[in-house]
């Protein structure tokens, strides 16, 4: 099993980065792992912490229509270049926390995605150099108020509500290009989304390179790599689970705002 890097909070409110052990214990690191955090002698047992989102990004850079079939279901071609938008850091929530259904919207959609965690400052780098800047991989749900996206003609409001970026549950350092991403709603055993990571139009290193020529990426920043086809609405009371082979799963219920 790949090493899993977590961010946790104790009942006293202290927050730590750490290594999740098979036993469920967390070995505490003395700093975020992408800032060369090293293991300490402290171990925290499972009942002594709750899992948080695995990083605190200064920004979340997301990519639209990065799977050809999703572009088609949205009624358009694959963009000739990566289509970028931003989600504010206040959208981030931990596994298990409620996605808050905003009263302004009448249709809120799930979008399961692979998320990249940046480990080093990136500015004007090549795709070849980008490989060494991607510190690890986690799971995201790019929750979207679809009706507001269509009404506004731009995506800031639709993508930017608080709780609209569940992230986690942990970060792994390596991921097979053949890993499968799947999204499930409630207890339905059939996935509503299913695709291989390799089906992306623009690969992770191309995305990081492209973004770095627009804005500087900082350690701990997150890049959302796009969602496959099969997007659909959720209602209050639903549960959304996004799974990626080699990482695990991210599950969040939908609640009222």
TrEMBL record:
Pfam families: FAA_hydrolase, Rv2993c-like_N
Domain of life, source organism: Bacteria
Annotated coiled-coil segments of the chain: none
Domain Rv2993c-like N-terminal: 4-54
Keywords tagged on the record: Hydrolase, Metal-binding
InterPro entries recorded: Fumarylacetoacetase-like_C (IPR011234), Fumarylacetoacetase_C_sf (IPR036663), Rv2993c-like_N (IPR018833)
Entry annotated with the keyword Metal-binding: yes
Any one GO molecular-function label of the UniProt entry: isomerase activity
Occurrences of domain Fumarylacetoacetase-like C-terminal (ranges): 59-254
GO biological process: carboxylic acid metabolic process
Protein name (database record): FAA hydrolase family protein
Biological source species: Planktothricoides sp. SpSt-374
């Amino acid at each position: 099993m790949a090493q899993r890097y977590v961010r946790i909070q104790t009942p006293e409110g202290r927050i730590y980065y750490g290594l999740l052990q098979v036993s469920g214990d967390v070995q505490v690191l003395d700093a975020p792992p992408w800032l060369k955090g090293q293991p300490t002698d402290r171990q925290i047992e499972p009942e002594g912490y709750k899992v948080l989102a695995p990083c605190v990004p200064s920004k979340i850079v997301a990519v639209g229509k990065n799977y050809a079939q999703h572009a088609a279901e949205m009624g358009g071609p694959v963009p000739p270049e990566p289509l970028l938008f931003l989600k504010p850091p206040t959208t981030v929530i931990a596994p298990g926390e409620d996605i808050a259904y905003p009263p302004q919207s009448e249709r809120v959609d799930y979008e399961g995605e692979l998320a990249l965690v940046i480990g080093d400052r990136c500015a004007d780098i090549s795709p070849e150099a980008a490989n060494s800047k991607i510190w690890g991989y986690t799971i995201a749900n790019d929750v979207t108020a679809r009706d507001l996206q269509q009404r506004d003609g731009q995506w800031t409001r639709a993508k930017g509500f608080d709780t609209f970026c569940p992230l986690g549950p942990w970060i792994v350092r390596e991921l097979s290009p053949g890993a499968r991403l799947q999204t499930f709603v409630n207890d339905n055993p059939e996935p509503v989304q299913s695709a291989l990571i390799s089906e992306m139009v623009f690969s992770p290193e191309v995305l990081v390179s492209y973004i770095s020529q627009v804005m500087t990426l900082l350690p701990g920043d997150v890049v959302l790599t796009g969602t496959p086809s099969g997007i659909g609405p959720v209602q209050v009371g639903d549960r959304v689970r996004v799974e990626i082979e080699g990482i695990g799963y991210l599950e969040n219920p939908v609640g009222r705002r």
